[in-house]
Amino acid sequence: MDFDRVYREYVDLIYRFAHRLCGETEAAKDIVQETFLNAYKGLKDFRGESQLSTWLYAIASHACIRMRRKRKGEPDRELSLEEFIPTSDGEFKLQIPIDGLSPEEALQNKELRRILNQAIETLPPQYRMVLVLRDMEGLSAKEVGSIMRLNERAVKSRLHRARLFVRKELSNKGLTATLPKKSNTKQK
Amino acid sequence: MASKVPTQPGTRKPTHPGHGKRHCLKILQKLSLYLDDELSGEVCTEIRAHLGACPNCEIFLDSLRQTITLCRHCQPHTLSSSDRAILRRQILKSAASA
User: N or C, which terminus of chain B has less Cβ within 10 Å?
Assistant: First the structure.
């Protein structure tokens, strides 16, 4: 298998993934470099038991974990379902005015993009990785499990907690600016 | 208006009859699986029946769906073509010196 072809085909995917995981441009480039260096060394032994992309995601994930350990960040925090149960009527609704807007329209708002990115970056790493792989990269629970060395049940459990966390963070931050209304919305 | 449920002093009143914390948690646990179409028909029917009777849970489900949709449409960061070339050179240089 030709390294250059692999690099051309997957560098953007791995960079996107790395940036979503670590939230920093230079760190993401470091992860890309480490991933493809390891891929270069291991390509001749790659037997195609998984998809090439899955293999690369796994290498990148482990690179990211190693980077985090070197930085000695805060210890992994477990999320419990109970912390996400609404305790008052106002907490059931997402406190962001995006009803009636497509996600693309809603995400044109810079502040919404900022608080969404912040919410994802604040997720404890073991949950962030599952959310990024499953909901943002679009991998199946089985593929995520093989990358993170988890069974599918554990993947689904972490994913659910990750989504609830992001939901709560979005709601707590709220939005100071009003999002633009749809152009075909009737005005009262 | 929901009828009031008698409670002991110091305990929290549920926001809706049959919507106590334990029942809420039971539904909450399954919402991602429900949204991802990973539950049996029977369980989905049970959840839909609850949602039909509980506006708060229905609102919560909708908010979770919106959150997932936003995450899925989050704009990615991309590499410039010059960065791609620079990284490739660095990788091949490291590989050669290894």
Answer: N
CA distance B45 to chain A (A): 20
Boundaries of every domain in chain A: 3-71, 81-173
Number of domains chain B is built from:
1
CB contact under 8 A, B91 and A103: no
* Residue B67 contacts A where some CB pair is shorter than 8 Å: yes
CATH 1.10.1740.10 fits A3-71, yes or no: yes
Cα–Cα distance, B67 to A146 (Å, whole number): 25
Q: Please tell me the predicted confidence (pLDDT) of residue B3.
A: 40
**Structure confidence at residue A97 (pLDDT):** 77
Complex-level ipTM: 0.87
Domain with B69, as residue range(s), is 16-74
Instruction: Give me chain A's average pLDDT, please.
Output: 87
Mutate which of A4, A8, A19, A36 to disrupt the B interface (most B C-beta within 10 Å)? Answer: A36
Distance, in Å, from the CA atom of B98 to the CA atom of B95, rounded to the nearest integer, reads: 5
Q: Which residue of B has its CA nearest to A8?
A: B84
Q: Tell me the CATH number for domain A81-173.
A: 1.10.10.10
